[in-house]
Amino acid sequence: MRFDEMPCFFLGANAPKGYYSRFDQLFSSAPEGKCYLLKGGPGTGKSTVLKKTAEILGRENLSTELIYCSADINSLDAIIADEGKFVMADATLPHSVEPKYPGIYETTVSLCDCWDEEKLREHRKKAAALFDENRRLHEQGRRYISAAASLLDEAQKLGNLALNQEKTARAALRICLREFGRKQHKSGTEKIRFLSAVSEKGVFFFDKTAKILCDKIYVIDDDCGAAAKIFMSTVRKTALEHGLDIISCRCSIFPAEKTEHIFIPNLRLGFMTKNRRHNFEILPFRTIHAKRFYDEKIYSRHKARMKFALRCASAIIAKASECMAEAKKVHDELEKIYIDAMDFSKVDSITEKIFAGI
User: Fold this and answer.
1) Any idea where the domains of the chain sit in the sequence?
2) Which of 46, 233, 290, 307 shows the smallest number of beta carbons within 10 Å?
């Protein structure tokens, strides 16, 4: 498997109540697997080690997922291979991870021994100020996301007033029964991921992941989100009851309660939500226009307010992205300080030891 053929996701994202992490998903595998937890500062080579390791796993033809950083979409946060039997992750803030089975399942790999502390201390005031500024910008971005979430929630509540929930659920169930086949004598399993997140480049979406995982994709086009929430909830429940293993991709703005996309890799089948924030370039097998599930008269009564809420939410999300772009510039300055203090030959030696273990 080539690097560019590996499905990409996020496992954490800026959300209304702060950074929302699902790095607990790294520990879903049994303890007989192997997990490397990388510790170190910005610019210490964690993402590079992750990329090199992913390329080696690909050459071994191991099925591998790439987990990217929503604050820097060019930086890897983790890799998950062979259905979780091999995991490597950046275990530092904001997704700090500590071992559950130290030495048995997880090995902590410190890159802190590869830097010159005297060089770092020469820049301590500047570095401390940059760390503080980075945190401030991310907190400001999250406040914008919180404001946008209130508006998106308002649009969804207005949509609910016009929505025929039973009709929506029945439509989803008909498709599921046609696609899923007979129920298996087991419950399905669920992986939690994010396919999109508010990033320094706006709402960033991993289009290619859907194309890698699926041959057939159903898209529900629903701007206010009320029908899509019921539709996806029905698909999720039915798939698990049929014993199918699924990947549920949560909404990064409502990460605890809303599933936006569902992939069923064994069937090469996907269900995706499309709206003004997710205008992805995917040719669907079928597009389901959500307006068929709404009472036209009631919807028209609230349409202007919904449009206003959605338009304002998009503008506020754009401001959140601007904050994250500024935070990325600050982080880049921090990386320069650490890179200048690093002995990357030591990092290479550590990486060689990991590769030998693989």
Assistant:
1) 3-115+343-357, 164-293
2) 307
